[in-house]
TrEMBL record:
NCBIfam families xref list: PRK05441.1, PRK12570.1
Gene Ontology biological process terms, A to Z: amino sugar catabolic process; peptidoglycan turnover
Keyword field: Carbohydrate metabolism, Lyase
Enzyme Commission numbers on file: 4.2.1.126
Domain named SIS: residues: 53-216
Short name of any one Pfam family annotated for the protein: GKRP_SIS_N
An annotated Gene Ontology molecular function: ether hydrolase activity
Protein name: N-acetylmuramic acid 6-phosphate etherase
InterPro entries per UniProt: Etherase_MurQ, MURQ/GCKR, SIS_dom, SIS_dom_sf
SUPFAM superfamilies listed in its UniProt record: SIS domain (SSF53697)
Amino acid sequence: MALPATERPDPRSETLDRWPMPAVLSALLEGQLAAVASVAPALPQLAAVVDAALPRLRAGGRIAYAGAGTSGRIAFQDGAELTPTFDWPRDRLAFFMAGGETALTRAVEGAEDDTESAARMVGEAEIGSDDVLFALAASGTTPFTRACVAATRAAGALTVGIACDPAAPLLAEAEFAIVAVTGPETPAGSTRMKAGTAQKVVLNLISTALMVGLGRTWRGRMVDMQATNAKLRRRAVRMVCELADCTAEVAEAALAQTGGRVKPALLVVLAGLDGTAAQSRLQTVGGDLRAALAG
């Protein structure tokens, strides 16, 4: 059986362990840059995925992730960051990690081959037709991840396979296929390198584009972020100052009325509403700040 492209040795790095350290680092950096560039040809497919996912998410669907090992950890990180960054509800996220959350910090023996646990996790999550699954596997052959795709697709969810080998079976089994061709790794088989970087870039682009499409940004700012520490509270004040062209004192007073939330604070300043009315107007228009300001 032929090795997946991501598992083949790169003949250029055959003597890697004898190179001077600057040359080793230069070769590794070259691989990272190539990984980022490998995503560019997939941009039309990424756009199609976002367009297909948005109606489901607007209807209340969840964003789900599936993966094993490095791919699973990258997927988990992407999803975990959506709540503090864009205020995406935690209960509208689902994670299918081979080996469970234990596998986020240490390897779990045989987890990536456990198709029964994949089907069980998907069943317990009660995946439905409005949900969207992003399934990651560098080689695209991982049994756990492919089983997650099969189960979620059977439940009517939108499935997106993300891999780094164009021959990956995962790509054929998901409704949408995203491939970033990263080729052999340096060192060989270390898919935490180029393949991992490419997968992270793909998820960064898709999840951020989804949040833009869902109205969770405005004028290029993360106006739905959660101001949960001193740095972020300062950022919230600065954001209101910039977007409403007001003083810090005005911004702080508006944010005090809205529990530190930027969107309703902007309505307080720009539309002359109080905090309660601002929150109510946003709910009426599904959180779309542009629509709230127009109405």
